[in-house]
Specification:
41% helix, single chain, alpha/beta, globular, 300 residues
Length: 300
């Protein structure tokens, strides 16, 4: 396994990864994303993820939600399609995974112990059809490391795991002190063990691959330390996956542009007070800024 020092994410690394814009494109040109999550307590989380997938350029975004959440979904969410899950129906038949190019599992479930069977079913189905997956939040909390280890050798499309430090510690059974002392080493260790791209969030987010490659986003952005920003990141990565980026490249681009949105907020002297949905409107302009910055660099 290659264990070289991590690369620092930069405009030069990330901008060339961004998906192109087809002159005669249509919604089918930019991929479809399915977000499965949500609960009465956390209905906002899957909506944040789904909106972020649109903001990075996905062509169609659908939500797979418990049918009891119908009353919480308002007409403001006009751009999404919905799959309503009930205990009486086969979730795979309801969701129709074969129609999608990326699957995001977990935002806002709230009671992950009740979702373990569904998560395993989703992961195995995605694995069989090489469907790119982002496993986030309560999707991670619904499984233990042994489940991911058992799946590790059979992935046709490497999954992306997006834990914050507490979720990482629960999954791996290590202490927070151990993690904070060895973030890069442990991210690499469990990326290899789970056969996944590990996006270990926090200050200086680490992206680790099973083959030992790694990147660090060298940015301290206090504004992002608020609920909902992780859901936005999951949606951004999922939206980039749907447009054809590899799991590694979607993670690099998602993490870097996500940080740019936080930095844009902070430049207005607002280090606190952000809400997760404040990021959403900024994403397209940050993508454009990244492209322009790269073009200016390459002209020099």
């Amino acid at each position: 396994m290659n264990t070289a020092l991590p690369s620092i994410l930069s405009t030069a690394i990330v901008a060339p990864l961004l998906p192109g814009i087809a002159a005669h494109g249509h919604k089918g040109s930019y991929g479809s994303v399915l977000v499965v999550g949500g609960s009465e307590q956390f209905i906002g989380a899957p909506l944040l993820a789904a909106t972020a997938a649109y903001r990075v350029g996905a062509g169609l975004v659908s939500l797979g939600l418990d049918e009891r959440l119908k009353a919480f979904v308002t007409l403001r969410q006009l751009g999404f399609t919905y799959h309503w899950l009930s205990g009486e129906q086969d979730p795979m038949a309801t969701l129709g995974l074969d129609k999608y190019q990326a699957l995001i599992i977990g935002p806002g479930w709230g009671n992950p112990t009740q979702r373990t069977d569904l998560v395993q079913l989703l992961l195995k189905s995605a694995q069989s059809m090489a469907l790119p997956v982002v496993l986030d939040a309560d999707g991670l909390n619904a499984v233990d490391g042994h489940i991911l280890e058992n799946l590790a050798t059979a992935w046709k499309s490497v999954p992306v795991l997006t834990p914050h430090p507490k979720e990482f510690c629960r999954l791996t059974k290590i202490t927070m002190a151990e993690l904070q002392q060895n973030r890069l080493h442990l991210a690499l260790k469990y990326a290899k063990l789970y056969g996944a791209v590990m996006v270990l969030k926090g200050a200086d987010t680490v992206i680790a691959l099973p083959d030992g490659q790694s990147w660090v986003n060298d940015a301290d952005i206090p504004a992002l330390s608020v609920a909902g920003t992780g859901d936005v990141l999951a949606g951004m990565i999922g939206g980039l996956l749907a447009q054809g980026l590899s799991p590694a490249n979607a993670s690099k681009a998602g993490v870097f542009v996500h940080a740019m949105t936080g930095q844009s907020w902070q430049k207005q002297d607002k280090k606190r007070g952000m809400m997760g949905d404040d990021l959403l409107a900024i994403i397209p302009s940050m993508l454009q800024q990244l492209r322009e910055n790269y073009a200016n660099q390459t002209r020099i």
